[in-house]
Amino acid sequence: MSSKKPNPLAAKPGTQGIDPRGPRFGATLTLITLTVELILLLANPGALSASNSVFQNLFTPAGLLLAYITVIFAIGAFAGISKHPYGAIFKAAVRPRLSAPEELEDPKPPTFAQLIGFIISLAGLVFAVLGITTGAVIAVAFAFVAAFLNSVFGYCLGCQIYVLLVRAGIVGRGGASA
Q1: b/e string for 64-99 if b means 16 or more Cβ within 10 A?
Q2: Among 18, 27, 51, 107, who pairs with 150 as Cys (CB 3.0-4.6 Å)?
Q3: Does the residue 11 lie in any domain?
Q4: Average pLDDT value for residue range 137-145
Q5: What is the pLDDT of residues 65-83, one digit of tens each?
Q6: Domain for residue 175, yes or no?
Q7: What is residue 45's predicted lDDT score, i.e. its pLDDT?
Q8: For the segment 4-55, what is each residue's pLDDT rounded down to a tens digit?
Q9: How many domains would you assign to the chain?
Q10: Which residues pair with 10 in a beta bridge?
Q11: Mean pLDDT of 80-94
Q12: 14 located within any domain
């Protein structure tokens, strides 16, 4: 009898799974961009101003980087984790240098995590273009914490929320079992 608990994020037999190291690699790149974003927001809090137009705030370094981050999350959320640009980098540059993964992961939880990242970064972008720097910093900090947990500890907060929602019967009734 095995004492190992089943992984609720593992792909079901016969289904297409993803290498779980790919999303962690993507989280590392996301963590780097979010770190730069926080530095931009905190180093010059006056760059975003409610007295500026939306376009003036958007076309600041902080606004443009946050727009980029939001688009990256949108691709992962709406095109699927398998189409994520960071996943393509992982497949081309990193994956060939690694051994095969021990098990594959269901792509639904990381895709759901991308949706959460999209919503949070979109909120930060809206705050940024409206010149509400504090709101942008808080939104980016939430995304930063989630990316940090995934990158450093392999703990995908959005994936865990997905599993909880599946167990509650709110999402994924035909999807991943938990």
Answers
A1: ebbbebbebbbbbbeebbeebebbeebeeeebeeee
A2: 27
A3: no
A4: 98
A5: 999 999 999 999 999 888 9
A6: no
A7: 81
A8: 565 656 655 555 788 889 999 999 999 999 999 999 999 988 888 888 899 9
A9: 1
A10: 105
A11: 90
A12: no
From CA 22, how far away is CA 156, in angstroms rounded? 12
Q: List CB contacts of 158: < 8 A, sequence separation 6 or more.
A: 109, 110, 112, 113, 114, 115, 116, 117, 146
Domain that residue 144 falls in: 21-167
CB contact at 8 A, 116 and 30: no
Contacts 24+ apart (CB under 8 A), 21-24: 21/90, 21/94, 21/95, 21/98, 21/101, 22/81, 22/86, 22/87, 22/90, 22/91, 22/95, 23/81, 23/87, 23/105, 23/110, 23/113, 23/150, 23/156, 24/150, 24/151, 24/154
Asked, for residue 83, whether it belongs to a domain, the answer is yes
> 125 CB contacts (<8 Å, ≥6 apart)?
63, 66, 67, 70, 136
Q: Rounded to the nearest 5 degrees, what angle is found at the Cα of 63, between the Cα atoms of 55 and 159?
A: 130
Count of beta carbons in the 10 Å neighbourhood of residue 169: 8
